[in-house]
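We treat protein structure as text, and this decision shapes the records that our systems exchange. Such a record has a labelled line for the sequence and another for the backbone structure tokens. The record that follows is passed on verbatim for readers who wish to inspect the format:
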Amino acid sequence: MRAAQVTEFGGPEVLVPVELPDPVPGRGEVLIEVAYADTIFVETQVRSGQWRDHFPVVPPYVPGGGVSGTVAAVGPEVPESWLGRRVTSFVQGSYASRAVAAVSALTPVPGGLDLLTAAALVHDGVTAAGLIELTGVSADDRVLILGASGGMGTLLVQLARSRGARVVGAARGSEKVALVRELGASVAVDVTDADWASQAREALGGAADVVLDGVGGQLGGEAFGLTADGGRFSAHGAAAGGFAVVDGSVAAERGIKMFGIGDVQFGPAELGRLTSYALGEAAAGRLRTVVGEVFPLERAGEAHAAVEGRGLVGKVLLKA
């Protein structure tokens, strides 16, 4: 099968096309003919050698964890009714033309929903839906979303608005700010403006009841300062190079409930439920994915460079 493999830790150029043996589904598994593979920012960080304590991979390895595609073969104890079905799944090593997954990890793709859209929801749809539930966003809330023009941020804007919340989105550059407004944010602010935090505070009417920080670093720290006493702050993003550094004693003193990346690591049952929900909302036309560019599998290194460059709006996907 065709695959993209990280040959050593380093820049995007270490991600190269290779031919590998076809995987064979074992007991309770299926073989997926991959249509699209998802990419997420953390995969570029792992490839560069960061987060080794959390992701103990050793080159050479095939990165990636989410695919959409069609079941091409089934292993022992898997009903043949799965053959030919369009599915999404989390897998080990998704940057490949074929992947093996446990049948229990499959989520059927609803009729009328294309596999490209489904792939864009594998990671981000699950995490976005889980975050909205976790932080209890409601119609009474003022919600600040950092990284609002990214793959997950665009979904968070829509999901928070669907609950009736007042949404203020923060993004980088005029094109991304315009998209965030188009997706339903009441106000969108440009984080390249020196006074973006003041603009956000004014738009929020003083403070945010919920902050969803998909960026981290200094911006995340500034966003914490915009959180209302008794509010909720989710530091789930580290695109800036690290998660937002927040003084736990200050958060406790102000009654702010803190959430982190560990709170959105869901078990199999929750993954299935949240994936089905995200796919269903997209199939019904209530949730729009924004795909910035699709790269062929052989150009996975260019896809990583695009993700790291942050010039694109929305998701970057690989076409197998």
Notes: DSSP finds ten helices and 15 strands in the chain. The CA atoms of residues 208 and 227 lie 5 Å apart. The first strand starts at residue 2 and ends at 6. The first helix runs from residue 41 to 48.
